[in-house]
């Protein structure tokens, strides 16, 4: 605990408004330069004919996302950018950071047809890692792991890049195996690429991603102090290098959530607030959804229905299905903890359905056991079910009595019994949760 307290008093520098970022900064973080007409040096002139460089500068600052997306798309069609590994890589990374998963996958498919990007070249290995990353983020970490394994088999003994190792480790965490993620990172450490070896100003392509993956593995294993330490190191390194985009490495929100788990609400609030601001500035739906989830966790409010739905909707439209699955399960747990059982059940059912669809047995297993823990609602009688359905459709008690040829008092008695069985306080909640209760009460 002393580690986190000590760390929270150390101020992180702010990148926004600081000097303009140069291509070398990207090389420090990812190991490649995002500019085909770059003559080298951190202070390279901002005017450039490279569309990727225009995109990368906005990506670094985490602002004007639609313009960054437009530049990234131009870059992927531009013959000069397409001839340069770094330009292609950052154009695709920009698309991923803007939730354009399908478009990025399409460009990867097109590139894979070109000889320069064939599997046995360095560019081809980079492309394989990118394709696996897209599979992971858009909902299938298990398939991503198969792709990483296939890429390793076809690499003719070449060690994987730090970027590929970091992404493979994150996919392992999302299939529920953080131990494997740590083993992967340790094996890579022994090859000389140390995740913790982030000296300011050093060229350390991909190492900040290794560090972020290690942080996530620690947090997934409940080792919060170690996770917080790694996330803080990530944040300090990225900000010192003028990179302040939550989609590039989502360290703010993850640090806030880890601090919350370790009981340090003050630090949690500080980083969730910074993360929310950064997410809104960049405007990617996935980041705002994740930040909203963190804000829900932090708030002590009982009624979180609307915000939980908004977080869910944002993640769904973003196409970041892997985050959607994880956070749907977590939202269910928060709702269950605040005794909002019908909506919690709805989230668990959604997590089970989507987890099945996207082949994520870890999510299905966790959501099923969470659902068992809060217990299924008691079964309604056929008469209670009929009345509840009409009430949920908006009919008042008099109308229901007329439709079913019952006394109004009988309708009221049945409804009150049904509310008790379903754990609802009244009509408004019934309308909210009715669609998902149907399979349970039938
Ligand atoms: Zn270029």
Describe the protein in words:
This protein is mainly α and 442 residues long. The protein folds into three domains: 297 residues, Tetratricopeptide repeat domain (Serine Threonine Protein Phosphatase 5, Tetratricopeptide repeat); 65 residues; 60 residues, Winged helix-like DNA-binding domain superfamily/Winged helix DNA-binding domain (Arc Repressor Mutant, subunit A, Orthogonal Bundle). The protein is built from 24 helices and no strands. Zinc ion binds next to helix 3 and helix 5.
Q: Which distinct ligands sit in these coordinates? A: zinc ion
The SSE string, one letter per element, is HHHHHHHHHHHHHHHHHHHHHHHH
Secondary-structure content class: mainly alpha
Number of strands: 0
| Quaternary organisation | single chain
Q: Approximately how much beta-strand content do the residues carry?
A: under 5%
Count of spatially separate domains: 3
Largest sheet: none
Distance between the termini: 50 Å
Known CATH architecture of the largest domain: Alpha Horseshoe
> Can you identify the CATH class of the largest domain?
Mainly Alpha
User: Please, how many helices?
Assistant: 24
Shape by Cα distribution: elongated
Write the layout of secondary structure elements.
Layout: H1 2-9, H2 23-30, H3 51-61, H4 65-77, H5 79-82, H6 85-97, H7 101-112, H8 122-137, H9 141-153, H10 162-174, H11 178-190, H12 207-220, H13 224-240, H14 251-261, H15 265-282, H16 285-298, H17 305-318, H18 321-337, H19 341-357, H20 361-374, H21 382-392, H22 397-404, H23 408-422, H24 427-441
Bound molecules: zinc ion (ZN).
């Amino acid at each position: 605990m002393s580690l986190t307290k000590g760390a929270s008093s150390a101020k992180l520098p702010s990148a926004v408004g600081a000097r303009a970022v140069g291509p070398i900064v990207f090389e420090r973080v990812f190991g490649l330069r995002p500019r085909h007409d770059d003559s080298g040096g951190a202070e390279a002139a901002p005017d450039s004919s490279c569309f990727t460089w225009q995109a990368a500068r906005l990506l670094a600052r985490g602002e004007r996302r639609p313009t960054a997306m437009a530049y990234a798309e131009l870059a992927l069609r531009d013959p000069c950018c397409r001839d340069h590994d770094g330009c292609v890589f950052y154009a695709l990374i920009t698309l991923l950071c803007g939730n354009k998963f399908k478009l990025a996958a399409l460009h990867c498919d097109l590139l894979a047809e070109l000889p320069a990007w064939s599997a046995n070249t360095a560019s081809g290995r980079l492309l394989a890692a990118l394709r696996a990353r897209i599979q992971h983020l858009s909902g299938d970490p298990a398939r991503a792991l198969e792709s990483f394994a296939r890429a390793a088999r076809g690499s003719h003994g070449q060690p994987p890049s730090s970027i590929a190792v970091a992404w493979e480790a994150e996919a392992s965490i999302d299939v529920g195996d953080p131990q494997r993620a740590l083993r992967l990172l340790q094996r890579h450490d022994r090859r000389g690429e140390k995740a913790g070896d982030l000296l300011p100003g050093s060229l350390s392509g991909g190492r900040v991603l290794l560090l972020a993956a290690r942080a996530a593995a620690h947090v997934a294993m409940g080792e919060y102090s170690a996770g917080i330490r790694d996330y803080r190191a990530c944040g300090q390194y990225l900000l010192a290098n003028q990179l302040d985009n939550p989609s590039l490495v989502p360290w703010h929100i993850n640090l806030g959530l880890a601090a919350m788990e370790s009981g340090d609400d003050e630090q949690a609030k500080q980083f969730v607030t910074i993360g929310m601001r950064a997410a809104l500035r960049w405007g990617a739906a996935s980041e705002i959804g994740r930040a909203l989830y963190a804000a829900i966790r932090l708030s002590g409010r009982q009624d979180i229905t609307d915000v939980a739905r908004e977080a869910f909707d944002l993640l769904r439209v973003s196409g970041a299905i892997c985050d959607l699955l994880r956070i749907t399960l977590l939202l269910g747990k928060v709702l269950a903890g605040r005794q909002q059982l019908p909506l919690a059940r709805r989230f668990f059912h959604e997590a089970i359905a989507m987890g099945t669809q996207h082949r994520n047995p870890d999510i299905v297993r966790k959501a099923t056991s969470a659902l068992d823990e809060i217990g299924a609602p008691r079964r309604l009688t056929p008469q209670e079910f009929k009345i509840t359905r009409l009430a949920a459709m908006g009919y008042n008690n008099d109308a229901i009595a007329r439709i079913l040829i019952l006394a109004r008092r009988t309708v009221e008695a049945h409804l009150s019994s049904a509310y008790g069985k379903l754990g609802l306080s009244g009509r408004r909640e019934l309308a909210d949760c009715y669609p998902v209760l149907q399979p349970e009460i039938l």
